[in-house]
Design goal:
alpha/beta, nine-stranded parallel β-sheet, 9 strands
């Protein structure tokens, strides 16, 4: 039976509390990504959410990780939390984001994560403008980057080596998104609805809207805290196996009863965000062991 590719990882990697616990004592901070990328299968880049990075930084992240490693990239909060894609300024800001050097990840570039705040409500017309703005493949992203302004200090000018599709995942935190129209928009544009597990009371849904599934596990006891129990790890593993095989779990929590186009498989990206008290990397490893998957450096 065909199944999709499963990648289990962590949200971010630079946390002082991890030093001497997950990271070996005296490991240089500059080598933390190198170490983390050999323990898990993928890493969510969080720094891109808070500020524009430099092209040299993106390339350094690429070079620090094993061949075939994959990053996901968190979109700028300047776009999702401040501008909220409301006007033409958003086009320039999105161009700056891509020109900052995202293409420097090369084939290690995985999905983009667009996280909207709890105060951001669903309005169909406005949200469709946002989805339509997102580049769907690398050459479109490169063309977009050419519209950057002076805020990009090291613009990335190298054209992509090959044309390939880009993936986008949407994380919602306002209950108004529990709307069939929202699910239909995601399916129309091929964007994934983030399955977001937390104690915060944010909307939770598992509708399949793209050719991949994006899962974020924010903590079992508090927001960003608490290790997942063995039973919880088993439950998530079973759901991931269903998604990878192209089907929803039997008890999936759905916004709409309208089923998507049937697929034989989905790729699955799962990130542990329970970074407080250093649980994320260890929970990620436990889930990897349950699923029988390995970091890239251990393959072959």
């Amino acid at each position: 039976m065909q199944t999709g590719f499963v990648r289990i990882g962590i949200s971010g990697w630079r946390y002082s509390g991890w030093r001497g616990v997950f990271y070996p004592p005296k490991l240089a901070q500059s080598r933390e990504l190198e170490f983390a990328s050999r323990a898990v299968q993928s890493v969510e880049i969080n720094g891109s959410h808070y500020s524009l990075q430099r092209a040299s930084t993106w390339r350094a992240w690429h070079d620090a990780t094993p061949d075939n490693f994959v990053f996901s990239v968190k979109g700028p909060r300047y776009l999702t939390h401040m501008l909220r894609f409301r006007d033409e300024t958003a086009t320039s800001a999105l161009a700056n984001f891509f020109a900052s050097g995202v293409p420097g990840l090369g084939d290690k570039l995985g999905p983009f994560l667009w996280q909207f705040p709890p105060t951001f409500a669903f309005h169909a017309h406005a949200f469709e403008r946002f989805l339509a703005l997102l580049p769907k493949e690398t050459t479109a992203a490169a063309a977009f980057a050419g519209q950057h302004d002076a805020r990009v200090k090291e613009p990335w000018f190298e054209p992509p080596e090959k044309r390939r599709a880009l993936r986008h995942a949407i994380e919602i935190r306002h209950p108004s998104f529990l709307d069939e129209g929202f699910v239909q928009l995601l399916r129309t544009y091929g964007a994934a609805l983030v399955v977001s597990d937390s104690t915060a009371g944010w909307p939770y849904a598992e509708d399949l809207t793209a050719d991949f599934v994006y899962l974020r596990l924010h903590g079992s006891e508090t927001l960003y805290g608490g290790s997942y129990t063995d039973a919880a790890i088993e439950a998530w593993a079973e759901r991931i196996e269903c998604w990878a095989a192209g089907r929803p779990p039997g008890d999936a929590r759905l916004i709409t009863t309208r089923m998507p186009r049937r697929r034989t498989s989905h790729d699955v990206f799962c990130y542990f965000d329970n970074d407080q008290k250093v649980r994320a990397p260890f929970d990620a490893r436990r889930l990897m062991q349950r699923l029988g998957v390995e970091p890239e450096h251990a393959r072959g």
